[in-house]
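Deliverable D5.2: sample structural annotation.
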Amino acid sequence: MKVTQADIVISAVKPEQYPEGNLPEFALAGRSNVGKSSFINKMINRKNLARTSSKPGKTQTLNFYIINEELHFVDVPGYGFAKVSKSEREAWGRMIETYFTSREQLKAALLIVDLRHPPSKDDVMMYGFLKHHGIPVIIVATKADKIPKGKWQKHLKVVKETLDIEQGDEVIMFSSELGLGKDEAWSALFRHMK
């Protein structure tokens, strides 16, 4: 897809702040620092529309990005690292759960994992949560450029086995450095928009 326009629409914490209208939405879930912002920036050919940070836990709201007036990417707060209080974490959990379980415009979730490491307990829980709620999942394994090409398949196998991926769920190998997986990711999104 040729992206000619991309903007952040709103950072929301509750349903009444979500954008109106019926544009299809794709939520990006993953642990803090897994490369969600880099994924968004690569997909839309922009350097820093989605702010990347070396400080995990930077995203604390649901950030809605509009792409070509056709769809929204929704960056949800990362799980795992963030040095925040337990009550803050619980509030994020409720905010994310509300979005995932009540948003009709949501077409699929992109579960972003780091290809270099086996998915974490949180990744496995997130995958289980999405499947439980009947939300289509596209798994995106980022940072492929950090692994020798000859080991990609071995690492992919670990991702699939650790998450215990259901038949039919797509796994896309991705590298924001190399642009690897970008076309496959757009194709997957379009299939879910129909």
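Annotation notes: The longest strand covers residues 106-114. The radius of gyration is 16 Å.
The annotation will be released with the project's public dataset once the embargo ends.
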